[in-house]
Amino acid sequence: MSEPLTTSFGHIVRHRREALGLSQEELGAKTNLSRNYIGMVERGETNPTLLVLHGLARALSTTMVSLIGELEAGTDIPDPKR
Q: Tell me, what CATH number does 38's domain have?
């Protein structure tokens, strides 16, 4: 079962990929990841490592900060100070 955070991140990746007109296969080729793995990321079925996040950001012509910032802005992440 997908976690809300990984599902939200997957939606961001899919949205960014589609905005660039890339297929999952094309994004996979740019990141040296399989189309199947890209699909798993987009469905929130896997929690990408920092290396995968870095590759996705580069392939999507953005930064890791931008991807994580969008994720954080769109989710209700508990504040650890509370």
A: 1.10.260.40
Q: What is the pTM of this model?
A: 0.87
- Going residue by residue through the chain, which has 82 residues, state the pLDDT in tens, using 9 for 90 and above: 568 899 999 999 999 999 999 999 999 999 999 999 999 999 999 999 999 999 999 999 999 999 999 999 986 554 445 4
Does any domain span residue 79? no
Q: What is the DSSP string of 6-74?
A: HHHHHHHHHHHHHHTT--HHHHHHHHT--HHHHHHHHTT-S---HHHHHHHHHHTTS-HHHHHHHHHHH
Tokens 């189309």 correspond to 35
38: domain range? Answer: 4-72
Is residue 78 a part of any domain in this protein?
no
